[in-house]
Design the sequence.
């Protein structure tokens, strides 16, 4: 077993690691906090031995302290979505057998009952920080480090477990491929419970010795101000963010648009990923800012797999070539490898970047691998060496604004509505969100019909807000095939 020397965040003396509002934090300050937090977490133990410590903290210094502190003490970090509904949190905490939850004091009242009911100790970073760091354990690279929840073709999200070796591989391939350096400055406004924010931005930035500016949400005017000031040289976002920026440009003065676009123009790199970047958007962004978006493809289970080149042609509508260290192969439906160009097949991935397991779910782990290849469920073709994503093998997965949503999970909640007899949820093409959650329902005999606004109100608190259907279509009955299964393609055609 190889030991990890924790190069995630080297002590780079007085270089600035994090900026949050008016506050700046150097690498040595952040490391000092991390070691003191890890020591406090350990108490009189020598090693957390993969204890699951959850944290409910938006992007901030405290988030970084919690994440790295758990790693330094030998625990498994479980970052949670701060926009989750309580029932969703209950599932994450129970599934991961979490024992301690770190949250900012302002969230304690909201979380206390849930934590008490699950026998979880609710703490804050200040509670744990000790005055002086003590001895910290050596951690083997093969040990479990992080658990992220992902929706899939089952109705409850699964815990994707990666080891330190996985995370290291996911980071280092991007450091080289995208030419990260100490000179880089990048804003982080994406959620920090998904790999796009955690690995591609925060972890790559800190590994490279760069500076990461933390925002608790995607605040266009605040971020634009910094872009105009020339603060950032790298920008990474989901396609919806580029769409929203373009929509914002339509609401402000053209001279202001020009100064923001000039700010983007001066950057060394703009990246799009987590969902398909439409060719129209790629072209609009190039016309506005002169930036040729670098589109890449990834997944919670693999980090980044395929990327357009940093140097070389970035092709619109394509995701590029497999990254160094990532083996990538297309397979047909009979599990035969496809080696000729232009034939579509499922993307399967091998490499140190691939996750270890779904937590406490051996059958799901086994089903997701075939002959050592991780089966992504995404379908692609290769054209002149460039991969192009064609779609997904399951209609039950929806990508909305970069979030992966399970149609079955949303259907499960909607079915508990008193008036709903049957329901089917699909993703419908949408210019802003990529896909918009759309619910088809049949109403129980004798119940009154439902309007979209009342359904949205009912959903509030029962699911994260971005899962709530954007459209509702009431039918007498849902179309079914001879086996009695709802035919979702027929629903799509109806629109
Ligand atoms: C927000 N809303 C959404 C939504 N985000 N609706 C559908 N889909 C989404 N993704 C809704 C809210 O519920 C709210 O509805 C309204 O929009 C305004 O909310 P907001 O929070 O102010 O929106 P905004 O800040 O503009 O958020 C948009 C966004 C966000 C694009 C910034 O969705 C986001 O951060 N997405 C990125 C997710 C991500 O990081 N995915 C990576 C997964 S990892 P109402 O009705 O209340 O007004 C992965 C692997 C890889 O995919 O390859 O990277
Ligand atoms: P997640 O499970 O949230 O990590 O989402 C991963 C999924 O996002 C992949 O399986 C793809 O379906 C999708 N995805 C990521 N990047 C791209 C991209 N550039 N183009 C199309 N789909 C993408």
Sequence:
């Amino acid at each position: 077993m190889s030991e990890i020397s924790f190069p995630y965040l080297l002590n780079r003396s007085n270089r600035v690691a994090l900026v949050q509002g008016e506050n700046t934090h150097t690498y040595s300050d952040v490391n000092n906090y991390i070691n003191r937090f890890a020591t406090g977490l350990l108490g009189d133990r020598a090693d957390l031995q993969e204890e699951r410590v959850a944290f409910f903290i938006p992007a901030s210094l405290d988030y970084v302290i919690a994440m790295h502190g758990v790693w330094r003490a030998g625990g498994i970090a479980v970052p949670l979505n701060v926009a989750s509904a309580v029932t969703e949190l209950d599932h994450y905490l129970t599934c991961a057998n979490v024992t301690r939850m770190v949250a900012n004091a302002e969230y304690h009242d909201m979380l206390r009952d849930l934590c008490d009911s699950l026998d979880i100790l609710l703490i804050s970073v200040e509670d744990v920080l000790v005055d002086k760091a003590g001895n910290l354990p050596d951690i083997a690279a093969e040990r479990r480090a992080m658990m992220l929840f992902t929706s899939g073709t089952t109705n409850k999200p699964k815990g994707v477990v990666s080891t330190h070796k996985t995370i290291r591989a996911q980071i280092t391939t991007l450091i080289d491929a995208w030419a990260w350096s100490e000179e880089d400055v990048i804003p982080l406004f994406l959620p920090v419970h998904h790999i796009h924010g955690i690995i591609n931005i925060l972890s790559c930035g800190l590994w490279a010795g760069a500076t990461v500016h933390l925002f608790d949400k995607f605040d266009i005017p605040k971020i634009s101000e910094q872009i105009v000031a020339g603060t950032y040289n790298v920008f990474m976002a989901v396609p919806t963010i580029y769409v929203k920026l373009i929509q914002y440009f339509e609401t402000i003065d053209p001279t202001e648009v020009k100064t923001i676009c000039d700010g983007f123009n001066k950057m060394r790199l703009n990246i799009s990923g987590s969902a398909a970047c439409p060719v129209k958007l790629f072209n609009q962004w190039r016309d506005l800012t002169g930036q040729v978006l670098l589109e890449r493809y990834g997944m919670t289970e693999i980090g980044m797999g395929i990327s357009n080149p940093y140097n070389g042609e970035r092709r619109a509508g394509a995701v590029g070539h497999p990254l160094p260290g990532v083996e990538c192969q297309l397979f047909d439906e009979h599990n035969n490898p496809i080696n000729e160009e232009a034939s579509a097949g499922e993307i399967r991935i091998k490499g140190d970047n691939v996750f270890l397991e779904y937590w406490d779910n051996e059958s799901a782990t086994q089903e997701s691998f075939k002959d050592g290849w991780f089966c992504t469920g995404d379908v692609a073709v290769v054209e002149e060496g460039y991969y192009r994503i064609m779609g997904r093998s399951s209609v039950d997965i929806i990508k909305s604004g970069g979030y992966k949503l399970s149609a079955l999970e949303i259907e499960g909640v909607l079915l508990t509505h008193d008036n709903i007899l049957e329901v089917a949820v699909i993703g419908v093409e949408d210019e802003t969100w990529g896909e918009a959650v759309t619910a088809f329902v049949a109403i129980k005999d004798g119940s009154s019909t439902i309007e979209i606004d009342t359904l949205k109100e009912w959903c509030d608190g029962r699911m994260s807000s971005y899962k709530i259907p954007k459209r509702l279509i009431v039918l007498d009955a849902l179309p079914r095939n001879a086996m009695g299964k709802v035919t979702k393609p027929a629903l799509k055609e109806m629109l």
Summary: The CA atoms of residues 296 and 307 lie 4 Å apart. The pocket of malonyl-coenzyme A (ligand 1) is lined by residues 190-191, 194-197, 217-218, 238, 240-241, 244, 273-274, 298-300, 400-403, 433, 465-466 (CB under 6 Å).
